[in-house]
Design goal:
single chain; Ribosomal Protein S5, domain 2; Alpha-Beta Plaits; 5-stranded antiparallel beta sheet; about 30% helix
Length: about 200
């Protein structure tokens, strides 16, 4: 069955885990695309210039099909994978976690590292609520001015979200339509005269 919603975290959250002098500071962020994630990661690198590692994982997309795990110099599979595992254990998407490590002088070994990165990521996710969000689809519509009231009524009734609006002789609206309302939205608009509908991919 096609789902019309997904789960993500509500806001940025921070938690810390310590083991044998090493500090692991985990940041969990509701971020939805790689470009924004990279900008945020760069910001964290600037905030923690003396940290030895900035390991991370993310999962994006309403179906969670875009993901990445990075060990940032730690032994392969000891950091990024355990962090991603915590995102997946919560069944969330549009979420990125960065764990910043300050080395404390003692080597933790592979099991110790896996445990530290997993625990830090888990603690960051424990302090923030998981929220359910509707899957929204982007559309652009163009119509003749007399249809304005009817179009706006349809948008309002179906809880669509207007992104951009140009009012002229042929008004244009870019909007997001909840997946569950898509069929109704298309049917009601096609019942109006001279409405051009385009799906934005």
């Amino acid at each position: 069955m096609k789902t019309d919603h997904f789960f993500t975290i509500e806001r940025l959250s921070v938690a810390e885990f310590k083991d044998r002098g090493s500090r692991f500071i985990a940041y969990a962020n509701p971020v939805a695309e790689a470009t924004l994630f990279r900008q945020w990661l760069q910001q964290l690198r600037k905030e923690h210039p003396k940290a030895v590692h900035h390991c991370y994982a993310y999962r994006f997309g309403t179906t969670g099909d875009q993901f990445r795990a990075n060990d940032d110099g730690e032994p392969a599979g000891t950091a990024g994978k355990p962090i991603l595992g915590q995102i997946d254990s919560k069944n969330i998407t549009d979420t990125g976690i960065v764990v910043v490590r300050y080395f404390g002088g003692s080597l933790l070994g592979v099991p110790g590292l896996i445990n530290a990165y997993k625990t830090a990521a888990s603690l960051a996710l424990q302090t923030v609520p998981v929220v359910r969000k509707a899957i929204l689809l982007s559309y652009s519509i163009e119509f003749e001015y007399p249809a304005m009231n009817d179009v706006m009524q349809i948008i309002k009734n179906l809880n669509c979200e207007i992104i951009q609006q140009e009012s002229q002789l042929f008004p244009q609206i870019q909007l997001r339509v909840p997946l569950k309302s898509e069929e109704d939205f298309l049917q009601k608009l096609t019942e109006l005269r001279n409405v051009e509908i385009k799906k934005i991919l």
